[in-house]
Amino acid sequence: MSKPHFVHVFVVLVLISCLVLAGCGTSAGDSKEPPDYSPLQVLVPKAPGKKVVGNSPLTLDISNITQGYLTAVADSARQKVNVQLTADGGTTYSYFIQPGETAVIPFTDGSGTYQICCYQQIDGTQYAALFAENLDVQLDNEFLPFLYPNQYVNFSPESKASKLALSIVSEGTSDIDALQAIYNYVISHVTYDYELAESVDSDYLPDVDQTLETGKGICFDYAALTAAMLRSRDIPCKLQIGYAGTVKHAWISIYIRSRGWVDKAVEFSGNSWSRMDPTFDSNSKEDASIRQYIGDDENYTVQFTR
């Protein structure tokens, strides 16, 4: 995989691919609507080991696939592993896991059959096959993959991002007002990191709390932080990875209970939605051309959803 190239719209656009999906909790009811949690809660993935496939150096805990995820555990001492999920639609999602680490991997295409192929690094970009498995996934609720944390949108109840989201948005706040508050916080407190954009590795993963602490990030960081905060507020959010024009980029899509899925947009004017890409918009206060770019659907192409 070649190293991503970044530039910031009309100047030096931004980084890496990213794509988000929808998900929700575990309460019963209409699976075509997100579950309602009262009080609000940050969903926590679990790996109880009741049902697993594979063995050392890679084990997949599939005990909770109805919740929209599996947990991959890499116990290799030195070599990383690769998990590839191919959904019914043909899209293959690839996840690299470092030695000794655990990763939550979402079923972003929803219910259906997934072919899972697992590999271990031999040297550099060379990998050897470990095992393959077909999983029939039936989600308890179609929004669950977009409410839980995963390897790309990584947070927990103890995360600063989660606590911040719950502190700035009260229990009874509407989805639209919660979205506005979180979105406005991110674009007001995070600036684009040009230095990181020039040096970032192809296997870079965002750290939402680090983005908050440093106040800097690339498009991947903007989108992951916004997604983490929204999911912490039980608002389904997709991390989208693809292209802005010809440049690798990341942004978000969100689900508003009164409106449905809002693709590539996070601001509601009262009658219509306007795209407010978290990265571009944070730099668009004095550049009308950037805001116009944000509003043009043809400038965005989705590759993956996380």
TrEMBL record:
Pfam family, one: Transglut_core
Gene3D superfamilies referenced in this protein's UniProt entry, alphabetically: 3.10.620.30
Coiled coil: none
Keyword Signal: yes
SUPFAM superfamilies xref list: Cysteine proteinases
Secretion signal, residue range per the UniProt entry: 1-22
Domain spans labelled Transglutaminase-like: 211-270
Superkingdom of origin organism: Bacteria
Keyword Signal on entry: yes
Keywords: Signal
PANTHER family: BLR5614 PROTEIN-RELATED, SLL1049 PROTEIN
The protein's name in its UniProt record: Transglutaminase domain-containing protein
Provenance organism: Blautia wexlerae
